[in-house]
Design a protein that fits this description.
- InterPro entries: DUF6415 (IPR046300).
- It holds the Pfam family DUF6415.
- By secondary structure, the chain is mainly alpha-helical.
- The protein has a domain of about 90 residues.
- It has five helices and no strands.
- α2 crosses α3, α3 runs antiparallel to α4 and α4 runs antiparallel to α5.
- The longest helix has 24 residues.
């Protein structure tokens, strides 16, 4: 009898469910989620403004600014790769430049360090703008 309120029984065997990841893989995913920080466009623009301003940042702040700009580059490159932005020629060139700058150490000497910070700042700014233009970022901050 099939009608409202009656149960239908299946007689075919069902395969036992197996999880898609083992415990080690789940631990890796959990560690990555715990270490993840959201994209902060305002902080990115603040850091870019600090290094591209007419008045260079204080010498004591250069190493910290360089590290934050490298983090912005890493996040933007990850967004570009995930969004397949490298199909866009301009974005692909900016990603290559970002990767090269990311590996360059902060040079010794005040003028060289400021020049490096400004290259980082321009690249962060241009890649951010390009990703917004090709809609890999929902909006520019």
């Amino acid at each position: 009898m099939t009608g409202p309120g009656s149960l239908q029984r299946f007689t075919q065997p069902v395969q036992q469910w197996t999880p898609p990841l083992d415990s080690g893989q789940l631990t890796t995913v959990l560690d990555r989620l715990r270490g993840w920080t959201a994209f902060d466009g305002s902080a990115l623009l603040d850091d870019v403004a600090a290094v591209l301003d007419d008045v260079p940042p204080a010498e004591a702040d250069t190493a910290q600014l360089a590290e934050r700009l490298r983090e912005h580059l890493t996040r933007l490159v990850t967004i570009a790769v995930a969004g397949e932005a490298e199909r866009d020629t301009a974005a692909a060139q900016l990603v290559l430049r970002a990767r090269a700058l990311h590996t360059d150490p902060l040079p010794h000497g005040r003028q060289a360090a400021i020049a490096h910070l400004r290259r980082l700042g321009w690249t962060v700014n241009e890649l951010h703008d390009r990703l917004a233009a090709i809609r890999c970022l929902k909006e520019a901050a």
